[in-house]
Design brief:
globular, 17% strand, alpha+beta, 3 strands
Length: 75
Amino acid sequence: MKHPYIHFLNQTRRTCLIGLDIATRYRLGGRDALILANYISGKIPVMYTHDRELLSLQSVAWRSASLEIRDPLAT
């Protein structure tokens, strides 16, 4: 499946380990942590969401990678 604005990412053992680290460091549930881990392991710099809990973080870092979390409707 190819689409210019959608990327399909595999969840690997490495992604799960990143997710576990993010969950404990940022006090997140497993689902949110795995979603963030997929973005970070996929080297995606920005995640757009309306989720208030994730937006309150503003950014998430793991080792040298970081992910900025933004509301798509905020200016």
